[in-house]
UniProtKB/TrEMBL annotation:
SMART domains: AAA (SM00382). The lineage of its organism: Bacteria, Bacillati, Actinomycetota, Actinomycetes, Micrococcales. InterPro entries: AAA+_ATPase, ABC1_TM_dom, ABC1_TM_sf, ABC_transporter-like_ATP-bd, ABC_transporter-like_CS, P-loop_NTPase, Type_1_exporter. It comes from Arthrobacter flavus. This is ABC transporter ATP-binding protein/permease. Pfam families: ABC_membrane, ABC_tran. GO terms for molecular function: ATP binding. The chain crosses the membrane at residues 21-47, 59-78, 139-159, 165-183. Residues 20-305 form the ABC transmembrane type-1 domain. It is a multi-pass membrane protein. Its main location: membrane. It comes from the Bacteria. It is found in: Cell membrane. Keywords: ATP-binding, Membrane, Nucleotide-binding, Transmembrane, Transmembrane helix.
Amino acid sequence: MFVSQPILRLALTAKWYLGATILAGLGASAAAVGAAFSFAAAVAAILGSIQTGSGTADASGTAAMVAPLIWAGVFTLARTGLLWLRDQFGTLAAISVKSRVRSQLMNHLFTLGPGRPGAGGTQATVVDGVEHLQAYVGFYLPQLVVTAIVPAVLVGILATRDFSVALVVLLGVATVPLAQRLWNRMLGERAEEHWEAFSAYSARITDTLKGIDTLVALGAAKRQGKRLTADAEKLREATNANLRASLGVSVVTASAMSIGTAGATVLAAFHAADGSLNTADVLLVLFLSAECFRPLQELQNYWHEGFYGIAAAAGINRVLETKPTVSDSPDAFPLALSGPPALEVKAVGFTYPGAGRPALQDVSFTVPAGATLAVVGRSGAGKSTLIQLILRDVDPTTGAVLLNERNLRSLPLAQIRRAAARVAQDIVLLDGTIAENIRQANPEATDADFREAVAGARVTEFTDRIPGGLDSPVGEGGALLSGGQRQRVALARALISRTPLLVLDEATSALDAENEALITEALHLGGNSRRTTVVIAHRLSTVVSADLVAVLDDGRLVEFGAPGDLAGQGGHWAQMLHAQLADVSIAGLGTRS
Ligand SMILES: Nc1ncnc2c1ncn2[C@@H]1O[C@H](COP(=O)(O)OP(=O)(O)OP(=O)(O)O)[C@@H](O)[C@H]1O
């Protein structure tokens, strides 16, 4: 018997369906017992009439056998109907549990933040893993209960007819769960290994499909193909190991059932010969012995079907047990936020788990409400880390981030998510139309808000030129749009969401200078605005329109102030400015042909 505790807890959410499945299974066995007694009664009636007559069944014997035969027919039909009902209820239980497990997995994944497991393996768990629960939850688990009850009751009934036959059947029945117990540990390990191999293979396929163009361009398709073959080989080995282990259980179970039934038949024959059992009782004993083993046989069949569900349960548990990177503190309460918030970063330090050195050290600055802060610095200086801290994707190792003087840790996470819009460099659009993608950020937005957002982010500039306009599909992940068009859709999403805090992580990198300037204007980066904005930018044009600049270098804040003030100080910002201006002037030099 193999029961995964967390999946059992989830299965109990469909307890009514599971209860009905169990009742129908028990009812089917009861109907089989009824049919066995009826057949035995019919046979007894016929034999009785032969013994009293002249060697053939007389009219009274034929009449006496009609009623039991009708009953046998009724019980047999009832059994068929109950088995059908059992399968229906089992399927309904499985469907209900699968949909609950999927939504629990998705809800949990939403809370996990950057620490969530990789997309490939997670997809295998949410799609295939949960699908495998069907046979485990709908059939294996209810059959466990039926198997625990039916053989015990039937052995009791058998004992009233023939104690020694009952004892032989009991020995056969008891051997099956004992053998399975011995195998469980090994099967559990095999199940986990199989699931690991399956999700690794599935993750590799997802990665390959996502990066197929890059792999072809790099000439690395063959190498990736070899890796896929190696993963497929590991999966084949794991599947074989699985099959070998479950074959062991099958052999022991089938032997115990065959030996038990054969033993019961031989004993019943002896007892018929010595007159301690009549022919009708022999028939009854044989029927009941077979019915004792039937639930065990079915349990074994379901075990084979549900095995992958048990394997997947390990993967499902692993996702459900992954702890979120940040969570609500027990005494969190919302901040009264009527306009753009003031942002304070106070002596903040952050070290990634397992990293040898801090990504940020002792960073402090304040951004007044409605102002725009541009964060600049070399690659690896800590800009993205700072953004993650401001959005509370992670908590600082030391110091604190405050909104309107309230530590982010004391705010409900849901409020922070609602108050902040983020546009990252790699934009992910969901399959649907351009308009649907934009409206998704604020389904309650009015048509006027929508028009303002698409105009501000210069979306209409390209949608006016395509036949479907704003109702054109974006394709999977936004594949039908260019990088710059995707960024404009994402910026429109940020504009329509009207959040008081806006974070742009190189969100205009794919735009041409003219569009960037116009969008910057629409976002009111600079001057008092209805939102406080933090922007990571490499382009001068974005930075000079900000109210404040924070220059990071090797995780430390090396300069902070208005861009105009810093420009004259000859420090990091002034040097970056000069370097970029030199690039611009060299690029702007004409050539003589
Ligand atoms: N998940 C991570 N685990 C460990 N170290 C990390 C992780 N992410 C970033 N780092 C390290 O933290 C430091 C700061 O990285 P961060 O991504 O914040 O820099 P950045 O200024 O945004 O760089 P870029 O401009 O290249 O995006 C780097 O040394 C980087 O290697």
